[in-house]
Structures are given as structure tokens and as C-alpha cells.
Design brief:
The protein is of the alpha/beta class and about 325 residues long. The protein is built from eleven helices and ten strands. About 35% of the residues lie in helices and about 15% in strands. A hairpin with a 2-residue loop joins strand 1 and strand 2.
Length: about 325
């Protein structure tokens, strides 16, 4: 199994560091440490609120000669409040400024959700709620067709600001539609995927269109316990199929689950704030799961989605806004 996957015209490392929920005060050091440990793929987003610190870490690693820019793959994402075509380039340029880069390797539409524009000077990142000081704070959807946002994403490629473009959190219907109108085809689909949500049909549809797939939250519930979006008993690492495979190959349950994701052909972007976990999460290419183990882990699927706007938008942001049925 290769340590890279083909994305558009390039090769992206199959293991990346997900930067969601890394505290701002820890981010620069963690990015530098990850690069020192051999990471070459960083997955960022405006909404994570730490891109300036990611830029500090990148600059430190580059200035120390730990890596060259050409060796790195840096992904970021367009936030929901910048879907109107006139705001897309400014949003990308703000990300580039924060990251201290002149070009992104990959830029993704973060959600198929368009929200009312919030100016940089008002609040950045703007998050989900239009006016946090309102009597009843809520999301304010903006009726922007996804095709118009995609047209503006294509302009970023033509302008040399990004090499590849793609989407996050799209379902098969949106993917079919996107392929019908896009002039520059999406190179990447980033989705939640783990043994409890294996998304086999969506992966198959992406493959038919030659779209690479990145799995976020590849370890499932671990990313969501601290947000009260998962229960402690929902850890896939405690499943017998995972533990038995881990015992056979002499690896941790987490390494087995990440290896399962890699063997399915997806990239994975586990998040960690611990240097020892950085090392562990990379050590996936000197062992292999057999067919029976792959099948048993895939059979754990229960269509359990942890990152679902249909739940968290209503609970946290006062607005019912499902995007999955």
C-alpha cells in the first residue's frame, strides 16, 4: 500500500495531521513537531481558528530547513459565510496570509451550507451564528447555489492561488450534480469515515469519478467525546474485531483502525496534541490487515455519524439544518 494517494495532478501523503480542535497556544509547536517527525500533509481550515499559528509552525519548520515547501501538502477550507462568489477569493487570500503561503495544495468547500456573510473586521473566524449578541442567536442561511461557489473556486485555480479544489461533507446526489456543471473537476472529497460509518457507496461513487477521498475523524468517537457528541461506550477501539487484529499484527487498536482506512484507499487525518501519538499514527506501512480482518472491521458499520449538522446545528446554534437524510 502506497504512502501517498493521487489527487488531481499531484501525490498527497496518505497520512496527515488534522488541525481541528488543537488549541491555538499549542498549534505552532505541534505543527513544527509533526514536520520534524516526518509529517508532510497538514489539514487546516479557516473555521479551526488556528491558521495563524499553523503559519508560525510552518515558517519555523521551513526556516530551520526541516522541510522544503515543495515537500509539503497543505489543505484548507472555505467557510460557510464566504460562499458568495465575491467573497471566495478574499477568504482564500486570508487563509494564505495566515498560513504564510503563496499557494495551497488543496482548497475545499467545507460544508454544502451557505450562511450570511460576516466581514473579517466583524469577527474571524465567523463560526456558525450570524450575531452572537442577538436575543436569540441563530444561523442565518444565505441562498447561494453551490454551482456559483464552485465557479469562484475554479477561479482560484486559474489565478494560481490553489493547485487543486474539492469538497467536504457532500453526499452522492451533490457529487453527481457537481460533476455535471464543473469545468475544473473536484480532486478531493473529504468526509467523516470510520468503521462505524464506512460510507461504502459514497466511496464507490467518488472512485467512479476519479475523485480521491480523505477520511476525517478516522478513529470515530474519540474526536467527539469532549464535545458531548459521542458516548464513552462508542469507541470502535474496544471492538473485538479491532482488538483481535491488533493482537495479531502487534499494533495498537488505533493503528489498526487507521490502517483499515488506508487499505480502503482513503487518506486519513487523525488529530492529536501528543508527540508520541504523532509517531504512532504514522507507523502504518510496515504491516497489513488480511481480508478477513478488513471484512470484520467493515462489518462494524452502523451508519453512526458523529459530525452531523442535522443534530449539532439545532442543539448548539438554534437552527435546524440537516444535510443528510
Amino acid at each position: 500500500m502506497s504512502a501517498t494517494i493521487s489527487v488531481g495532478c499531484g501525490e498527497m501523503p496518505a497520512i496527515g495531521l488534522g488541525l481541528w480542535k488543537i488549541a491555538r497556544e499549542d498549534t505552532a509547536a505541534m505543527v513544527r513537531s509533526a514536520i520534524a517527525e516526518g509529517y508532510r500533509h497538514l489539514d487546516s481550515a479557516a473555521d479551526y481558528g488556528n491558521e495563524a499559528e499553523v503559519g508560525e509552525g510552518l515558517q519555523a519548520a521551513l526556516s530551520e530547513g526541516l522541510v522544503s515547501r515543495e515537500e509539503l501538502w497543505v489543505t484548507s477550507k472555505l467557510w460557510n459565510t464566504y460562499h458568495r462568489p465575491e467573497h471566495v477569493r478574499a477568504a482564500c487570500e486570508r487563509t494564505l496570509k495566515d498560513l504564510r503561503l503563496s499557494e495551497l495544495d488543496l482548497y475545499l468547500i467545507h460544508f454544502p451550507i451557505a450562511l450570511q456573510y460576516v466581514d473579517f473586521e466583524t469577527r474571524y473566524p465567523p463560526e456558525w451564528i450570524a450575531d452572537p449578541d442577538a436575543e436569540n442567536p441563530a444561523m442565518v442561511p444565505d441562498p447561494v447555489p453551490l454551482s456559483e461557489t464552485w465557479d469562484a473556486m475554479e477561479e482560484l485555480v486559474r489565478a494560481g492561488l490553489v493547485k487543486e479544489i474539492g469538497v467536504c461533507n457532500y453526499n452522492t446526489g451533490l457529487l453527481h450534480d457537481l460533476m455535471a456543471y464543473s469545468q475544473i473537476k473536484p480532486a478531493m472529497l473529504q468526509i467523516e469515515s470510520h468503521p462505524y460509518l464506512n460510507q461504502e457507496r459514497l466511496l464507490r461513487a467518488a472512485a467512479q469519478y476519479d475523485i480521491a477521498v480523505t477520511a476525517f475523524s478516522p478513529l470515530g468517537a474519540l474526536s467527539y467525546l469532549e464535545l458531548d457528541m459521542a458516548e464513552a461506550g462508542e469507541s470502535v477501539l474496544e471492538q473485538a474485531a479491532v482488538k483481535e487484529a491488533a493482537a495479531r499484527v502487534g499494533r495498537t487498536p488505533a493503528q489498526v483502525v487507521l490502517r483499515w482506512g488506508i487499505q480502503r484507499g482513503t487518506a486519513v487525518i487523525p488529530k492529536t496534541s501528543r508527540v508520541e501519538r504523532l509517531r504512532e499514527n504514522q507507523q502504518l506501512f510496515d504491516f497489513e490487515l488480511n481480508d478477513a480482518e478488513m471484512t470484520a472491521i467493515s462489518a462494524l458499520n452502523r451508519n453512526r455519524r458523529f459530525n452531523d449538522p442535522g443534530h449539532f446545528c439545532e442543539e448548539a446554534f438554534g437552527t435546524f439544518f440537516p444535510i443528510y437524510d
